[in-house]
Amino acid sequence: MNLSVDLAGVTLKNPVMTASGTFGSGQEYSEFVDLSRLGAVVTKGVANVPWPGNPVPRIAETYGGMINAIGLQNPGIDVFIKRDIPFLRQYDTRIIVNVCGKTTEDYVEVVERLADEPVDMLEINISCPNVKEGGIAFGQDTKAAEAITRAVKEKAAQPVIMKLSPNVTDIGEMAKAVEAGGADVISLINTITGMKIDIHKRTFAVANKTGGLSGPAVKPVAVRMVYQAAQAVKVPVIGMGGILCAEDALEFILAGASAVSVGTANFHNPYASVEVADGICAYMERYGIEDIRELIGAVR
Amino acid sequence: MAKRKESARVLSQESLAPGIYSMWIETDMAEEAGPGQFLSLYSKDGSRLLPRPISICEISKGRIRLVYRIAGKGTEEFSAYKAGDSIPVLGPLGNGFPLEAAENRRAFLIGGGIGVPPMLELAKKLPGEKKLIMGYRDSHIFLKEEFEQAGPLYVATEDGSFGTAGNVLDAIREHGLSADVLYACGPAPMLRALKDYASERGIEAWISLEERMACGVGACLACICRSKEVDSHSQVHNKRICKDGPVFRAEEVEL
User: Fold this and answer.
1) What pLDDT digit, counting tens, does each position of B151-192 carry?
2) Is residue A117 part of a domain?
3) In what order do the strands lie in the sheet with B247-249?
4) Domain for residue A99, yes or no?
5) What pLDDT score was predicted for residue A198?
6) Which positions in this protein are listed as binding FAD (chain B) (predicted)?
């Protein structure tokens, strides 16, 4: 039985990875799961310099999900290279570094710093809803998205994944725009902008007022968008949004995702990522599927 | 000492005061946990994904006592669990109170409101001279008998219905108490006042903080507090309460 998938020439032992921002750089969850059992670890977004992030409260639980506005707190690329990459290198898994920035120059600087580092792929976050500049500013306009993809691709030594926002009118157009800019892979969805009001304190539940909604509540939206993106482009698509278990992951794969990311589920169950991988295996055995690739985009 | 998620068995459940519950659970995390650490409890309702961090109140062989306040639907669900029920638990989490800081020194153990419970296990474990100062809102004083067995107890109530009228600092003043080190858990204004009190008198202070948490293990960066110096992990003035704390040296953090 074959579980390995190919993303722009990078082979993953299985299609299960972690969603950026929910898994740090793997160290904390390595106490619960063997990272070598994952197709890839996608790190929390890293910028050219350390970012302090947003004030607290940064999260709030919502029905079947949560809202977060962490604000891309990160230690900056210098410490990331010194500390986080060597940590992940101890494991037999692919390393995908999520890159964030406020300007095109910020993104390019991080991408250049990573050129000689032993990482397998870059994921460019143009979809964070929780920072004022950068992030989403690039992710809601097709021309801006195409331009930043091109700028990053010019300097990138590794294949580039562009991570798309669901907070757009036409996800197919956004997918086509980053493909035109040279994206090797597309990942989606980032969180859906949301809001929660604390009726007892009569205030916003997170200090940033708005935050990104994630968790099972968003899954049907995510599956629909992954399907539409996969229909719109030729490059591989990584699907995520509310995956709690293997059955959820398989919906994304059947909708056209070549790989999937487990995010919020890690908070609910620290073993979720590996359990999703095991569950996909069990599903394939049950239905006599020899190769995971038979399932990718099988529902049209 | 490995953190893990497991299904623990509820041994007992009782209400100690309005909205305050005490639950003993059976778990071998008891062999590893220490005072000031916490467990994350999960709801069985799929609409509530995030674990609820609850401080450890007492530890005995193979059992842990959690005393918690009903703060919403999740904790309300826990309060309905009865002996024999199972409950999913993640732990033991966080860094607890350092016992060695009280070696050959007189200690204050100070709790306020729902910050009272974690001081009980500390009171039981801490050797040497200690004074227990607990602040409550009103006459619904919980864990009083347990504290009295562990050391001299001084109670303050906001409404003056029992002990000193006022807060824990009022109780310290009224009884003319003094110490060389203090441990505290409670609401932010209390911790702020204790930090100032300790710094004015050159007392070493260890305080336990709380914040809304998601992962509970240091990955998601939801529950940060502001640190005085640039933190080596975050590279900014942020520390993770769940992983770097919840107990901090008072001067390390900005309140």
Assistant:
1) 999 999 999 999 999 999 999 999 999 999 999 999 999 999
2) yes
3) B164-165, B153-157, B130-136, B107-112, B181-185, B204-208, B247-249
4) yes
5) 96
6) 52-55, 67-69, 74-75
Helix and strand element counts for chain A (H, E):
10, 16
Question: Residues B88, B133: one domain?
Answer: no
Judged by CB atoms closer than 8 Å, whether chains meet at B49 and A215 is answered as yes
User: Domain containing B135 — which CATH number?
Assistant: 3.40.50.80
For an interface test with A, the pick among B217, B220, B229 (most A C-beta atoms closer than 10 Å) comes out as B220
Q: Which of B37, B61, B93 is the last residue of a domain?
A: B93
**CB proximity list for A112: less than 8 A, separation 6 or greater:** A155
Do β-strands B52-60 and B38-41 pair in parallel, antiparallel, or remain unpaired? antiparallel
Q: What is the pTM of this model?
A: 0.96
The phi, psi pair for A75, rounded to 5°, reads -85, 0
A65 domain-assigned: no
Counting beta carbons within 10 angstroms of the beta carbon of residue A193, is it exposed (0 to 12), middle (13 to 18) or buried (19 or more)?
middle
The residue range of the domain holding A255 is 5-53+73-192+214-294
Q: Predicted ipTM?
A: 0.95
Judge: A57–B212 Cβ closer than 8 Å, yes or no. yes
In this structure, is the dihedral angle defined by the CA atoms of residues B119, B124, B126 and B130, taken in order, positive or negative? positive
Which CATH number characterizes residue A144's domain?
3.20.20.70
Q: Tell me the residues of A at the B interface, defined by beta carbons under 8 Å apart.
A: 21-24, 28-29, 31-32, 44, 50-53, 56-61, 63-66, 68, 70, 73, 75-76, 79, 215-216, 264, 266-271
What is chain B's length?
Answer: 255
Instruction: Let me know if residue A26 belongs to a domain.
Output: yes
Chain B interface mutation, best of A25, A30, A48, A61, highest count of B Cβ atoms under 10 Å = A61
Active site residues of A: 128
Query: CA geometry: angle at B111 spanning B110 and B117, to 5°?
Result: 130
CA distance A45 to A61: 22
Say which of B2, B218, B235 has its CB closest to residue A28. B218
Full domain range(s) for residue B232: 210-255
The answer to whether residues B148 and B220 belong to one domain is: no
| Closest by Cβ to A267, choosing from B215, B234, B237 | B215
Number of domains in chain A: 1
Q: What CATH number should be reported for the domain holding residue B83?
A: 2.40.30.10
